Structure formats: C-alpha cells, structure tokens
C-alpha cells in the first residue's frame, strides 16, 4: 500500500480547505495518523511520533511535522509508505532517497544519491543563496504521472527518473536522471535554477513558464556539472530547441498568457506542455546569451533576494535585469529588456530571418506554413532579435534586428566563393534562418571541402532549418538535398539523426520501400553513410562498452544502424544475423541494448521460421524484462514470409498466448511493414467481429490511420470505405472519412515530392 500526494496546480483544495492560489502563502502544520507499520513523510522533518487507540482498541501512529516555511498550497505534500532510504548529509542538509526496499538493497538509487548533494551545492554557490530547509527527501514511486514534482523538502519522482542499475555504465541513463533531478532541485534550492518556484513563486499560473522554463534551462547546467562528459550545448539543441521549434510553428499560443485568459482549472493543465518547458528554456538560453551569463546570474541573484518568500511575475524579473544592465557598460541593448523579452513571450510563434548577401539586408517575418496559409491569417509580428554571426569562419560582434528589415553593410559579400556568412551561430537565438541561393551554394561548397569550418551545432541547425523551410514551402526540396552531399565527411551522430529523420521518417519506411525512389536513395545514402557506419560497427563487433560515454551513440545509434539495414547494406544484415545467432546459441548472451531492437528485427527478417520461433520462445520466457518483450513483439513483425506474419496475427488473437492489449500492438506493428499492411488489413477485416468486441473502435481507428498512408487511388479508398460503412456507426464514419480524405491528399503531395527527390537523385547518383 502507498499513498502520495500531487497538489500542483489545483488539487490542494481536495485535501484541505484553503485559498488554493500560488500568491496566497502560509505556514503549514501537518499531522498524519497512520498504520504503525508504515512511515509518514511531509515537507518538514517529523518532530513527534506517538500512539493513539481508536474506538475498536486498534493502535495507530501519530506523526507530527515541524511547521513549514511560508509557502504556496501547491507545494504541500505528504506520503505514507513502507519504503527504505539511503542518506547522506551535504552542508548540514540531510538528503534521503526513499524507494521500494529491494530497489534500495540493490543499489538502484545510489547514482541519484551521489549527484543530489553536488547539484544542491553547485546551485547554492552559483547563486549565492543557501537552501532554507533542514532536510530533503526524494521519493521514487512505482507509478507517477509526471517525471518529477518539486514539493518543498519532499520531491516525488517516477522510478525511471531516479533509478539505474549499478551495472549500467551508460551515460544516457545517468544523463536523464541528472537532468530530472537538477530540474526539481532547481525549484528547491531556489537556486538560480527555478523561477524559482518555491522561494519566489509566480503570482498566477499565466507565468508558469517562469518557473518551468527556467528550471528546464538550469537543469542542463546542473546535469553538466555532475556529468562533465555531456556536451551540453549539442544535447540542448537536439532535445530542447529543435523539437520545440517544430511544435511552435503549428501551435497558436504565446509563452506568457494574459491573466484573464487563464481562469478555471481546465485550461491550467494544458499549460504544462512543451511550449512552457522547452520554449521557456530556449528563450532563457537566448537571454543568458545576449546578456552574458555573468550579468544574467547577477540579475537573478538580486531578484531572488528581493522576492524571497513572496511572489513575482515576469516584469519583476525584467526590472532586475534592467537594473544590472544599466549599472555597467560592456553589454549594450537596443531596447529596454522588457520590450525585447515581451516580443518573445507575448507573441505566438517565432521569426524566420531571410538574408540577402548582395545587399546585406536581413528581413524578418513570422514562420508559418505557406502551403496552407489562409488569406485571412495576418502574420505581422516583429521581434527584437539578437544575431550572432560569423563570416568566413571568424566570429563577428553580436548585432540586432529590431524592425521588419534592416541593411547590414558588413554583411555584403564579395565575388569570391570563399566569402560566406552564417547567422545564429550555435543556435543561440530562437528562430530559423533562410539564406539566398548564393550563400547556400557557398555553404554547400564549404561543407564538401571543409565541414569542420562550421561548428557542429551550426551544421545541425543549417540542415534542420533547410528541411523545415522545405516542409513549409519556403524553399524547394532540391535546396535541402544540396546540403546533404557532404555527408560522407560528417562524423556527428546527432547531425546524421536529423538528416535521417527528414529523409526517412519512421512512419514512411514502407511507403518509400515500395517507391522507385528507394534504389536511388539506397545508393546515394549508403555511399555517404559507410564511414560513420563502419566506425560504429567496429565498436559493436569489438568493444561496445567503449561507447559508454558517447551520449549520442546511446540515443541515436539505433536509427543509424536500422537505416543501414533498411537500405539493405549487406554488412549490417550480416551483423544482425551474427549477433542474433550468437543469442540463439546461448540464450544467456545479451545483444547490446543500444541496437537490440534493430538486431532482433533483422535477425528475424533475414532468417527463416527457426529465427522467428526462437524470438517467440524468448518472448514466452517468464523472466524476460518488459523492454525486451516490447522489442520481441516488434521483431516478430519483421518476418519476410507472409505465412509467418499471418500466423503471428493468429497467435495474437488467442487469449491464452497474450494479454489482450498485445493484439492491437501486434496488428499495428505488422501493418507498418512493407509486406505486412495487406496481410494485417485482411486479418482485421476477417476477424472484425471478435476484434471489435475486444477493442472497440480504437483499434480500427489506429489501423485505418496506418492504412491511410498506403491509399493512393480512389479505388483503394472505396475498398476501405465499403468495409467501414458496413462496420461503423454513422457518427464514426464521418471522422474516418475525413481521416482518409486527408491521408489521400497527403499521399498525393508526398508522391509529387518523391518524384522531385527521385529526379534530383538521378542527377546526383553516378
């Protein structure tokens, strides 16, 4: 049994009567009466434990906690559990990590305990503020809705966020723990890292981004402090900036909302999204960049001192930054801090900058999808934009664009093709860049001759920007493809990853496989992938542990290897068969986890029923770990023989072989495979009465979504329609019809695009 609380944003009122708003702070006295075999925890240390009898004569324990500091209701917390803990004291602050007894005994939280104190001290030193509570508890729950929650003095996490196996040396797992722990401590230490959430609280939820965006930014500093091998900036671009730029171009809300927009708790939950966390962090990164970290921290320190134990909003922070800027003369800003920052926090979306090299003019507009622009949409936002830039490899002084367009004489270039310009160096600003053809040609030329002349983060951004510009109708796909010619000289996995996600999105593999573009793509990409593929294949064959500090190998190597196998690279298929055969000979052998999914898939694909049956046998092994079960469920759908797939689907129907939720997983795996989608579709139509009774419409909806990717003609469309007209209620038909209609349009668009890609490849493949 276990009881734990989660009050943020508006649930304290369900536990005790209160004015449940962040600005109304109070001190709290908490007392819990509970079963004697359990322990009770709350924000403060327990000061008294006594016993009491109820009317039936049963004994209960009464735990009384010290009175809390002045704080908001959403930070109060309590927990009743039979967990164990490990502890250590850092600068007089007792840190305890609680978890299930066997997890503590096996050392699963030792890593988290090792870094927690260090992160606290790092934040205290950086910000020059000491932590105000006598103890800190971190608790790992088997099940918890969020990654972590920063209750003051009693932080709650899901197990995955705090635990790793002592045998697991891989940085990626540790990095995740370090990031989540830093994020939540950031709120605690009221260290520079949170806005600051606990010591200085937001006035109202419309400024939620202040505490979460900042904690998200500073979590990277804390994590890098304890794991110095992480290349912070690259991880920040790959995990924070790049994904949120993709999302923010479609989403219609600004970072900070007006107060009256957010009344009532329904709209509150929707604020806990990527815009709040990742856009908030990206904008903080940009702010710290143009102020310099030194001034930024100076401003935060003074802000913290003034607002301790009270509330603040974003304008209070801008005021403190302005005071610090006014008191020095090294950093000059083109406008008041509030005006600069409001342009980023109060407007939707973000800008795209277009540079004309001949005139040296940069203009800005809001980045939007030109393919489906309605003439009624008005996009006349302008931002005040810091521009870091380099010319011919040397960094230039920061400059600003504060109106819709402006001429920069220093950016006019000469006739020489070696004269090039790069904007937003190292992705310091939250925007995209579009260059004219002249500069793009020069950059493509430079990449082919000397890729390292452009910093890695900027190569990543150049490629990500140009593909995003292609998607949104700013530049033709050929422009993006020109920038991929140099890839044989690219040795950074995180850059390869962004290329592959754009050229071979996971959901299009089977579509591409059946298209005439496939053999061209195969030739073009393999030629460029071989160097990086062989580099990593060498480690896989000889010594995979040598990659334990290569964070990106742990996150992205799988996609690279999977793509090489998908493109039919013989060495990759051989590698998969070798490792899979090794496992068949000795079931104790562990296929390296980084590539286990791909190896199992291609082990089955290249093999016969013998390989498939082995996967089936291992799946039914009682002691296989959950992640391995998922991998095997997927691998069995990789079979290349129709009868194996058909048998697999039949197995999936049987109650005795699978728990019921596996059937739909099996169907959705098979339906995405190049030979599987017909088989799965046939299977669904034949067994529909039974499937419907078990899964209702949801399953059909998912299957039709995938089937939609293969609908190219009206005839195929009618075939699907006939089936669901016979099986669905009228109100459900409408939704599905819309789904298929839009899928068909997408397919037509995609085919046009693929024709262009194929034509370009024909010219560029010898």
UniProtKB/TrEMBL annotation:
Named cofactor requirement(s): Zn(2+)
Q: Which residues bind Zn(2+)?
A: 183, 187, 212
Which segments constitute the ERAP1-like C-terminal domain? 420-727
Question: Could you state one GO biological process linked to this protein?
Answer: proteolysis
Q: Please report the record's description of how this protein sits within the membrane.
A: Single-pass type II membrane protein
Q: Which InterPro entries match?
A: Aminopeptidase_N-like_N, Aminopeptidase_N-like_N_sf, ERAP1-like_C_dom, M1_APN-typ, Peptidase_M1, Peptidase_M1_aminopeptidases, Peptidase_M1_dom, Peptidase_M4/M1_CTD_sf
* Short name of any one Pfam family annotated for the protein: Peptidase_M1_N
Q: Where is this site: Transition state stabilizer?
A: 277
Its subcellular locations are: Membrane
Keywords, ordered alphabetically: Aminopeptidase, Glycoprotein, Hydrolase, Membrane, Metal-binding, Metalloprotease, Protease, Signal-anchor, Transmembrane, Transmembrane helix, Zinc
- Provide the E.C. number(s) assigned to this enzyme: 3.4.11.-
Which GO terms of the molecular function aspect are on file?
metalloaminopeptidase activity; peptide binding; zinc ion binding
- Active site (catalytic residues): 184 (proton acceptor)
Major subcellular location class: membrane
Q: Which domain of life is it from?
A: Eukaryota
- Tell me where in this chain the Peptidase M1 membrane alanine aminopeptidase domain is found: 111-344
What PANTHER family does the annotation carry? AMINOPEPTIDASE Q (PTHR11533:SF31), PROTEASE M1 ZINC METALLOPROTEASE (PTHR11533)
Q: Which family does it belong to?
A: Belongs to the peptidase M1 family.
Full protein name? Aminopeptidase
Coding gene? Lvrn
């Amino acid at each position: 049994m276990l009881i734990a609380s989660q009050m943020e944003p508006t649930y304290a009122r369900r536990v005790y009567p209160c004015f449940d708003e962040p600005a109304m702070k109070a001190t709290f006295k908490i007392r819990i009466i509970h079963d004697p075999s359990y322990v009770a925890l709350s924000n403060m240390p327990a000061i008294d434990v006594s016993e009491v009898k109820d009317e039936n004569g049963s004994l209960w324990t009464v735990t009384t906690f010290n009175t809390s500091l002045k704080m908001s209701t959403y930070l109060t917390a309590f927990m009743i559990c039979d967990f164990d803990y490990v502890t250590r004291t850092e600068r007089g602050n007792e840190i305890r990590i609680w978890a299930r007894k066997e997890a503590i005994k096996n050392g699963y939280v030792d890593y988290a305990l090792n870094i927690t104190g260090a992160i606290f001290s790092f934040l205290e030193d950086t910000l020059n503020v000491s932590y105000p509570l006598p103890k800190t508890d971190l608790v790992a729950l088997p099940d918890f809705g969020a990654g972590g929650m920063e209750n003051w003095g009693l932080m709650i996490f899901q197990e995955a966020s705090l635990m790793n196996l002592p045998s697991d040396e891989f940085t990626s797992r540790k990095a995740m723990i370090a990031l989540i722990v830093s994020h939540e401590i950031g709120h605690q230490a009221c260290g520079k890292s949170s806005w600051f959430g606990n010591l200085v609280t937001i006035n109202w939820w419309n400024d939620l981004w202040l505490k979460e965006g900042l904690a998200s930014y500073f979590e990277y500093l804390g994590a890098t402090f304890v794991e110095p091998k992480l290349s912070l900036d690259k991880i920040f671009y790959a995990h924070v900036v790049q994904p949120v730029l993709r999302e923010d171009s479609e989403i219609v809300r600004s970072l900070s909302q007006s107060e009256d927009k957010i009344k009532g708790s329904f709209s509150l939950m929707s604020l806990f999204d990527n815009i709040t966390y990742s856009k908030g962090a990206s904008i903080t990164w940009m702010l710290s960049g143009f102020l310099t970290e030194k001034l930024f921290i100076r401003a935060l320190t003074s802000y913290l001192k003034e607002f301790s134990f009270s509330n603040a909003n974003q304008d209070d922070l801008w005021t403190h930054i302005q005071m610090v800027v006014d008191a020095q003369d090294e950093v000059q800003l083109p406008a008041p801090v509030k005006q600069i920052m409001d342009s980023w926090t109060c407007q939707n979306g973000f800008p795209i900058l277009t540079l004309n090299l001949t005139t040296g003019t940069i203009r800005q507009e809001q980045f939007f999808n030109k393919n489906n622009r309605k003439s009624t949409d008005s996009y006349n936002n302008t931002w005040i934009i810091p521009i870091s830039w380099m010319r011919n490899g040397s960094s230039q002084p920061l400059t600003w664009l504060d109106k819709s367009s402006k001429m920069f004489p220093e950016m006019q270039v000469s006739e020489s093709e070696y004269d090039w310009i790069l904007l937003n160096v190292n992705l310091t600003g939250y925007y995209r860049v579009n260059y004219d053809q002249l500069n793009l040609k020069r950059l493509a030329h430079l990449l082919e001759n000397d890729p390292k002349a452009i910093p890695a983060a900027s190569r990543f951004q150049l490629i990500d920007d140009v593909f995003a510009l292609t998607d949104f109708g700013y530049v033709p796909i050929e422009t993006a493809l020109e920038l991929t010619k140099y890839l044989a000289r690219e040795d950074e996995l995180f850059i390869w990853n962004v290329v592959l996600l754009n050229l071979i999105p996971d959901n299009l593999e089977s579509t591409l496989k059946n298209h005439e573009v496939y053999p061209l793509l195969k030739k073009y990409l393999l030629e460029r992938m071989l160097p990086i593929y062989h580099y990593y294949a060498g480690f896989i064959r000889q010594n995979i542990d040598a990659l334990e500090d290569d964070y990106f190998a742990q996150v992205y190597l799988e996609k690279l290897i999977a793509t090489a196998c998908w493109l039919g690279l013989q060495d990759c298929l051989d590698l998969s068969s070798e490792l899979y055969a090794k496992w068949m000979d000795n079931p104790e052998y562990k296929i390296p986890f980084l590539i286990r999914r791909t190896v199992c898939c291609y082990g089955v694909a290249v093999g016969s029923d013998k390989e498939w049956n082995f996967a089936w046998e291992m799946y039914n092994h009682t002691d296989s770990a959950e992640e391995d079960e998922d991998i095997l469920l997927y691998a069995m759908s990789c079979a290349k023989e129709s009868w194996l797939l058909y048998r697999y689907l039949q197995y999936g129907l049987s109650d005795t072989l699978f728990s019921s939720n596996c059937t739909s997983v099996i169907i959705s795996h098979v339906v995405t495979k190049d030979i599987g989608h017909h088989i799965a579709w046939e299977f669904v139509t034949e067994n529909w009465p039974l499937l419907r009774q078990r899964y209702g419409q949801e399953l059909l909806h998912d299957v039709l979504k995938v089937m939609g990717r293969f609908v190219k003609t009206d005839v195929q469309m009618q075939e699907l329609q006939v089936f669901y007209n016979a099986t669905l209620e009228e109100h459900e038909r409408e939704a599905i019809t819309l789904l298929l209609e839009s899928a068909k349009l997408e397919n037509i668009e995609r085919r046009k695009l693929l024709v262009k890609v194929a034509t370009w490849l024909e010219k560029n493949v010898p």
